[in-house]
Structure formats: structure tokens, C-alpha cells
Amino acid sequence: MERIDVVLPWVNGNDPTWVEKKKAYSNINSDSTDNATANQNASDNRYFDYGTLKYALRSIEKNMPWVGKIFLLTDNQIPDWLNTESLEIVDHTEFISGTLPTFNSNVILTNLHRIPNLAEHFVLMNDDLIVWRMTKPTDFFKSELPVDALIETGTVPFTDGFFHISQNGVALANELFDKRKIMKEKPGIFFNIHYGISQLRTILSLPYKGFLGFMNPHLAMPYRKSDFLEFEKEFSDVLLNTGEHRFRDFSDVNEWAIRYVRNLKGNFAPGKIKGEFLTLRDFEKEIRLPSKTSIIAINDDNYRSEQSMHNMDEFLNSRFSEKSRYEL
């Protein structure tokens, strides 16, 4: 297996300089009714830094020792505790094709294949993902293919923007693929023992002619640069449209769309890594994780009591108390 890298987008939404820059561009965008939805998607909790990055890096060092390089994607920001010689700091200006500065994660995440010196095989993570147990390269790639689960499921519509963005990707998948035909040609990518009970969702979706939606696990996700390049050839106009939006827009697509197309082409190895999804509110009480949990996600639900933040820090520090080589 060739080198496998990790890509970690990060923003410090508490940085006064960055806050002023975001505010300035938010005011510009607010003059346009076309961007009203984008401003709705620019809420501060999307950028709040609640201190998990150092634990994410500690967990990678401890439980993903096989990783090649780590690429930290930033907008002219570097944590003051970071050992910049131990990983690759990549500013948005170095890889993003689109309007800059951007406060739109969809723009960032659809340009990952442009990161200089990034390996063909990489794992996309977030700073709220903690690798809880030891992993192997084969947890993410088998026979050079990303390990993933193709599970169809209905998507509940909310006005937070995620529904529209995910459904834009599903619409492109329906444009490119005939559901009935591909299910007959490649049943093994839809139904697999590794999917467990989750594949019942796909079974329940069988009566519908087109794809309703796909499960989007908030976990570390393996990709290949070639996945992005293939998507770009087919939907360059869609990516150009997304790249024009400084803030999230209901017409955007994100990396999920690239994953949908990749999986429907059969360019993945069916499998599933065990993960648990937590929110800051969950830390008001004691956390108990299933024994086989490999990765945990700690989502910012905009609930930031002193107690929950303190408990989260203690919880993570009890598991990852030693500094990593990524810290000064």
C-alpha cells in the first residue's frame, strides 16, 4: 500500500482577526437577497474552536501510527501550541480554486485534490474526530480502494442547509445512474454483511425509482484524489458554482457528492468502521462508549456550558494525556 495521508481542515472561530474578516464579508453578502440563505448558514457555531484539535492529533499519533503526512488546512491561522515542523500547514490560498477568502466548508472540501504533495490515498478528518482505538490501514483502504458503506436512506428536510447540500449530491447521482439498472448489475455494493442492520434502510427504499439519499457517517472518511478528479470531469460546472460562494449556499455540493458517485461506480471496498456520535451536551453526564468504538465524533450542538466543556476536556485527557509530536 502506498502512503496514506490525513487531511484536517481547521479554523479558530475565536480569533478576533478572523472574526472581523468574516463579519466584513458577511455584511457584503447581506446586501444580496440571493445570498440570504448563505448568511443563514454562516452561524458562529460552525467555526467555534472548542479545543479538540490537540486531542485529535494525539489520537492520530497513538492510534494511526501508519499515517504518512498530516495536512492541516487553515485560513492564515496556526494554533500557538502547534509544532509546525511536524506536519504540513496548508493555507486556503495554496489549493482552493474559487472565491477567497472563503468561510464555506463546501468550497474547502471539494478542492482537497489540489493540496500540494497530498498522497493519492488520504483520510479526511475533522478536529472533532478522535481516534479512540488502534486502527490499521485496511480499516480505511483495501486493495487500494476506500472502505465505505453504500446505504440508501431517506433524508429528513431541515432548513439548516445540510439537507439541500446532501440532496444536491443525490440529484447528481440520479442524473448519472439508473437505480434499477445499477442495483441489478452490482448488488454487492448495496447489500453486504459488513453493513449489518443498516442495509435495511436500502431495502425499504427499493420501491422508489430513484435514490432517496445516502447515509453520511460523521467519521473519518477515506478518499482518493482520483475520486475528485473523476467527479470534476463530469460536474465541473457544479464545482465552479459552489466555489463562487464565500458562505454556504443551498445550491452547493460538498465532498458527499463525490463519495456518492464514487460508490455508485463501485470504486470502494464495502466495510464499516465502528464510530460513536456525541454532542457537547452529552458531556453533562458520564460518557459510556461501546467496547469496539474506534472513532468518536464530538459535535458542537451550540451547547457550551462550563461543566460540559470541562467534562469533555477531562474525558479526552484521561485517554490522551501525553503530548504528541505535533505540540511544542
Structure commentary:
This protein is of the alpha/beta class. The protein is built from twelve helices and eleven strands. Helix 5 (162-176) runs parallel beside helix 11 (255-264). The protein is globular. Mean pLDDT is 91; it is low at 31-42.
Key features of this structure:
alpha/beta; globular; three-stranded mixed sheet; five-stranded mixed sheet
What's the end-to-end separation, in Å?
31 Å
Please report which band the strand proportion falls in: under 5%, 5-15%, 15-25%, 25-35%, 35-45% or over 45%.
Answer: 5-15%
Number of helices: 12
Low-confidence stretches: 31-42
Radius of gyration: 20 Å
Structural class: alpha/beta
Multimeric state: single chain
Assign an overall shape. Answer: globular
Strand and helix map with partners:
Elements: E1 4-9, H1 16-30, H2 36-40, H3 53-63, E2 70-74, E3 88-91, H4 105-109, E4 121-124, E5 129-131, E6 141-142, E7 145-148, H5 162-176, H6 179-185, H7 187-190, H8 200-204, E8 221-224, H9 225-234, H10 236-243, H11 255-264, E9 269-270, E10 275-279, E11 295-299, H12 306-319
Parallel strand pairs: 1-2, 1-4, 2-3, 7-9, 10-11
Antiparallel strand pairs: 4-8, 5-11, 6-7
Helix pairs in contact: 5-11
In a nutshell, what does this entry contain?
By secondary structure, the chain is α/β, with parallel strands linked by helices. It has twelve helices and eleven strands.
